[in-house]
Amino acid sequence: MKGSGPVEEGGDGVVNYTGAHIDGVESELVVDSAHSLQDRPETVEEVRRILLYHARDVP
After folding, report:
1. Quick one: pLDDT band at residue 7, thresholds 50, 70, 90?
2. Alpha carbon of 41 to those of 3, 33, 37, 44, 50: distances in Å?
3. What one-character DSSP code corresponds to residue 43?
4. C or N terminus of the chain, fewer CB within 10 Å?
5. What is the pTM of this model?
6. What distances in angstroms separate CA 32 from CA 22, 29, 44, 45, 58, one per listed residue?
7. Model pLDDT, residue 1
8. Maximum Cα interatomic distance, the chain, rounded to a whole number of Å
């Protein structure tokens, strides 16, 4: 997300929040960034958290 104001009114310059948001998901992290955010530490940490969460269920 770029800019300030309500998250629901924001976007990253390519996709708006309402186009990326999915109701009923278990978690959601909004990162203040332009569209490409794979180099942002908070993005990397969230992907890592999700992968580790699911890896614990792998036999």
Report:
1. confident
2. 19, 11, 9, 5, 14
3. H
4. C
5. 0.71
6. 18, 10, 14, 15, 32
7. 53
8. 44
Assigned token pair, 43: 């993005």
Residue with tokens 């794979």: 38
| Domain boundaries, given as residue ranges, for the chain | 7-55
Residue 20: enclosing H or E segment and its boundaries? Answer: helix 17-20
Q: What is the pLDDT of residues 28-55, one digit of tens each?
A: 998 888 888 888 999 999 999 999 999 9
Write the DSSP assignment of the chain as a string of letters.
-BSSS-GGG-B-SSSBHHHH--TT-S------S-S--TT-HHHHHHHHHHHHHHHTT--
